[in-house]
Amino acid sequence: MQFEKFEAHFSAHIDRGAKIGDGTKVWHFSHIMPMAKIGKNCIIGQNVYIANNVIIGDNVKIQNNVSVYDGVIIEKDAFIGPSVVFTNVINPRSFIERKNEYKKTVVGRGSSIGANTTIICGSSIGKYSLIGAGSLVTKDVLDYSLSYGAPSERKGWVCECGEKLSKMIKRKWYCKVCDKRYKYDWHKLIFLRGTI
User: Fold this and answer.
1) What is the CATH number of the domain that holds 91?
2) pTM above the 0.70 mark?
3) Is 101 exposed, middle or buried (0-12, 13-18, 19+ CB in 10 A)?
4) Alpha-carbon distance 181 to 193, whole Å?
């Protein structure tokens, strides 16, 4: 089924008012709520739910069986693996409405979240970070960090290309795959445009 300049499978339900960018594809049984905003050239996998007040940047890939709830912002070029779980309330009760207590979760540009990871709301996922499958994210994740576990902890650093950084010279990291360089400063990694 073709809607304007994006594509959606006939079984997908897209509520009137949802904003979807050119070139985006929405697969089987997905539901997009009326105030959701989705960028260009995204892939929305099978059985994905995107709530109101969700903002998704360009070139984002959301794999099957993911629910993206109110308060989640996914920046451009991010990858959300199959069955990733987002939350938006810290102390939910079925008999108490807490819609005014939703906590914002930001998934940074170019980051990747592995399959079956749970993200506790209020967390910020740093740009170009990589979170391993099956992790439980309970706090902010640093830019360019490799994190995994339950709860997840930083286990190393990754390049923008996704490769683990393993070579450090004078507090500067070097990617042996794509030749990008980074500087370690105050417990965080900073992309360098120059050379070592």
Assistant:
1) 2.160.10.10
2) yes
3) middle
4) 7
